[in-house]
Amino acid sequence: MPPINTPPNTPPNTLQRPVAIVTGASSGIGLAIARRLAADGYDLAICARREDKLAKAADMLRRQDINVLSQTVDLRNEAQILDFFAAVNAKWGQLDVLINNAGLGHKESLMAGKTAAWREMLEVNVLALCICTREAISLMQPANSGHILHVSSMSGHRVPAITGVYSASKFAVRSLTETLRRELRAANSNIRISSVSPGIVETEFAEKYHQSAEQAEKTYGQFPVLQAVDIANAIAYALSQPEHVEVNDILIRPTQQTS
Ligand SMILES: NC(=O)c1ccc[n+]([C@@H]2O[C@H](COP(=O)([O-])OP(=O)(O)OC[C@H]3O[C@@H](n4cnc5c(N)ncnc54)[C@H](OP(=O)(O)O)[C@@H]3O)[C@@H](O)[C@H]2O)c1
User: Fold this and answer.
1) Which residues are near ligand 1 (CB < 6 Å)?
2) Keywords assigned by UniProt (predicted)?
3) Tag placement on the chain: N or C end, fewer CB within 10 Å?
4) Model pLDDT, residue 238
5) Residue 198 CB: number of other CB atoms within 10 A?
6) Running along the chain, 259 residues long, what does each successive block of 10 average in pLDDT?
7) Is 166 in the active site?
8) pTM higher than 0.85, yes or no?
9) Which atom of ligand 1 is nearest to the CA of 201?
10) What is the pLDDT of residue 162?
11) Largest Cα–Cα distance of the chain, in whole Å?
């Protein structure tokens, strides 16, 4: 079945759908992005750690008549990341879009936080994003086209209270977005890089961050917060631009969010 809305990265004169990778597609923003890309006619490769949630997501996405590769990957493990990209290459031999979405926060202060929590944030939010980006570029280079999108955060633009290492990890993502843009320009590449920086979005994030369902309810109940689909729409906007337009960052807050 042909794509519903032919995305701009569709190779001309072929029936091959564009291929997108979404990391962290087992819940929240990643799952919403995967659903949107499936509706827009992409074949998808999705990864995360929780096998049951990932399998459920893959079944749901396949109902859109697209091809889905679903692989459990712990992004703290480089060998698993490389296996995943090798599987994508073996299945399609091309890559059009990478969504670096997987990420997490731990409420662990700089004054007294646990090293393991800091390490996990840096490994997933920063290092894995770099590894996935490098591997994606090598799959995109033969066609000299593609689009990499980072799900960053408003916490990469200002420092909230008691953010520990989380905000630093997202400042790093902001820097890495511009660094990659500069590298791609220096290489005269047509590959594009975008970042989306959300404020509060209702997902599993707050419960994991606060280690409290009650605190998560408070976070998401204070005013109408963003939904994961709002971020998927922003990603779809960046992806739908013509080739001469590179959306560099989209800052997106709930209307009533102050900070
Ligand atoms: N929610 C917000 O308010 C908000 C605001 C700004 C930015 N963000 C960013 O949005 C992105 C998505 O978060 P979310 O809000 O959708 O939260 P979420 O529902 O907790 O989703 C996080 C995703 O990342 C995956 N992940 C975490 N650690 C992983 C690891 N070691 N290996 C593989 N996958 C891993 C999780 O999958 P598994 O647990 O199955 O591995 C899950 O699919 C993150 O980068 C976050 O920083 C969120």
Assistant:
1) 24-30, 48-50, 53, 73-76, 101-104, 124, 151, 153, 198, 200-201, 203-205, 208
2) Oxidoreductase
3) N
4) 98
5) 24
6) 44 74 98 98 98 98 98 99 98 98 97 97 99 99 98 97 94 98 98 98 98 98 98 98 98 97
7) yes
8) yes
9) 3
10) 84
11) 58
DSSP H helical ranges for 153-211: 166-186, 205-210
CB 25 within 8 A of CB 47: yes
pLDDT in the model for residue 14: 55
C-beta of residue 155 within 8 angstroms of C-beta of residue 163: yes
Residue of 203, 215, 217, 219 best suited for mutating to test ligand 1, as the one with most atoms within 8 Å of CB: 203
Q: Report the residue among 49, 131, 171 best suited for mutation to probe ligand 1: largest number of ligand atoms under 8 A from its CB.
A: 49
CB < 8 Å & 24+ apart, contacts of 67-74:
67/17, 67/43, 67/91, 68/38, 68/43, 68/44, 69/44, 69/45, 70/45, 70/46, 71/45, 71/46, 71/47, 72/47, 72/48, 73/23, 73/47, 73/48, 73/49, 74/49
Sketch out the chain's domains with CATH numbers: 19-252 (3.40.50.720)
Q: Distance from the CA of 187 to the center of ligand 1, in angstroms?
A: 31
Spatial CA neighbour of 149 closest among 95, 183, 196 = 196
